[in-house]
Amino acid sequence: MLLRTVGSAVLAFAALFSASTAHAIDCGSDVQVTGGVTAGDYDPFSPTAVTFSGVSLTFTRAIAASGGGKTQTMHFYMRQPLGSPAGNQVIWPLTGDNVLFTEGGFAPTFNNPSSPSQPTGVATVDWGGAAQPDVITQTVQVTIDPNYDPVAQPTIDFDLVYVCKGTGGYSNVTSPVTLAGVIHISIRVLSGLQASYAGPALDFGDLSEVSSGGAIESGLFHVRSSGAFNITLTSGNHFLMTYPGGPSTPGPGTIGYSLTFVGQTRQYGNETFSIPTCHRAGTNAVQYIPITATLLEGGVGKTPSPTYMDVLTVTFSPIDDPGTSQPFCSSP
Length: 332
Known about the structure:
Layout: E1 2-6, E2 12-18, E3 29-34, E4 37-41, E5 50-61, E6 70-80, E7 89-92, E8 97-98, E9 100-102, E10 123-126, E11 135-144, E12 155-167, E13 173-187, E14 193-199, E15 216-225, E16 229-235, E17 240-242, E18 254-261, E19 264-266, E20 277-278, E21 282-295, E22 311-318
Parallel strand pairs: 1-22, 6-9
Antiparallel strand pairs: 2-4, 2-13, 3-5, 5-11, 6-10, 6-12, 7-8, 7-11, 12-13, 14-15, 15-21, 16-20, 16-22, 17-18, 18-19, 18-21
């Protein structure tokens, strides 16, 4: 029999970059991240990384209440939590370098803050002398690893680790200081699903000399989804195999079978498939959903034909529901 699978995998996301402010000591800087909502099409199954090219970082240097002290230069890198995807990046536009590192892993060691020479992966903000503007804005590119699961981890926070050089009597900060959550990314996947029939074909073979039912053929669907989903099942000929142009009711021109799928068994006279709502399958690992056809009668005494078949249509539909209370549909 033929098995037709219908699935959909187009979804939308909204990524929000929110502001974070920290008040520093000595030459430390108040750092803010500002940005609007970025929206578009996002496929969590794509092997291509997701890039946000317009994340604006606004650096406001510290100014002493008296005496003229100000921050002159700040050297920094970004840090993501332990266990974050290795492919995440923050690209500093002045050097083209990735300045994002993972907590607990390698991170560059700062040179003296007064030195303009810093290791690869360290970005520099230079306000200049006390007479220069106190605010500098740079736009960075943030890239999210394609293996990132926005459902399992809907938010990403990048900290900023820095040292700085003072001017006008402001002392340097040589021990790294951390500003938490300078970049905060929130992604919500509304719905996304990928489904396919993995086989094998539900083929009972030559039934011309088979006098009774009982033969069983089984196959598997592969499913990945960001959220809960529905499944529908229909038979093109009422769960009866027949030849092209053949009848749709039991008789010499049909061979009956039953089909077991997602906990339900259907056959002629009991054809209505109750639509189940299934728990999210996940976007990385594949969930397997079995389907089993059982022959109810043989081909002896049936109208001779080289082809007896039925067409089954299985439709997987994502729904905007986290699916946390729904059952898994991985077994009948």
